[in-house]
Every structure is written in structure tokens, then in C-alpha cells.
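Before relying on records like the one below, remember that each one covers exactly one chain. Contacts with other chains, cofactors or solvent are not represented anywhere in the record.
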Amino acid sequence: MNAFKAFKACVPVAWSPNLYITLVRGIPGTRRLHRRTLEALRLRKCNRTVMRWNTPTVRGMLQQVKRLVAIETEEMYKARKQKEVNHRALRPPLVIKHLPPPASHSS
């Protein structure tokens, strides 16, 4: 079992009231039924995330397109966003002082 399947297996999707769904693979080349399902989920572009209620209907739609999407709970989504914000945070500037060379007094 690869790491992604292990990650998906341990996600407690059944207990989360909201699901954050991200389209991670492109739509071109997929079946018409899958495209219609993604359209119903309001996923039109790659790497876009939508929030949906965790209902049996939505879970059935996600089961149909599980190869194209990544599913996160609310806690996982917030943790990922916070990690991205911390990564993009401003860092203190690198200050380099260019001092003139010491003057040598030779007489």
C-alpha cells in the first residue's frame, strides 16, 4: 500500500460534518459521467476546492470520481492552509553590510 492510499484509508470522513473536495486531476479525457459528477460538485478547474456537506449523496458522488479528487475533513483542510500560510510568511530580510576595506597607512 502506497502512502497516499494509507493516508486516504485513515481519514475519518464519516464523522466530519463538512468535506473539502479538491480536484487534483484534469477533466479532459475523463468519462462523460465523471465530468457531469464533477460539474454537479461545482469542480470546474484543477486544484480548486469546494466545501460540501457530508451526506450519503455526496459520498456516492465522491466514490464515483475518487481517482480525480482529494477529500479532506475540516481539520485537515485548515491544517493544510495554515501550513501554506506559514510557508509563505515573510522572513526577516538578509542584511549584508559592505564595509569599505580598512585604510592602511603606509608612509
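The helical segments are 3-9, 32-40, 56-64, 74-88.
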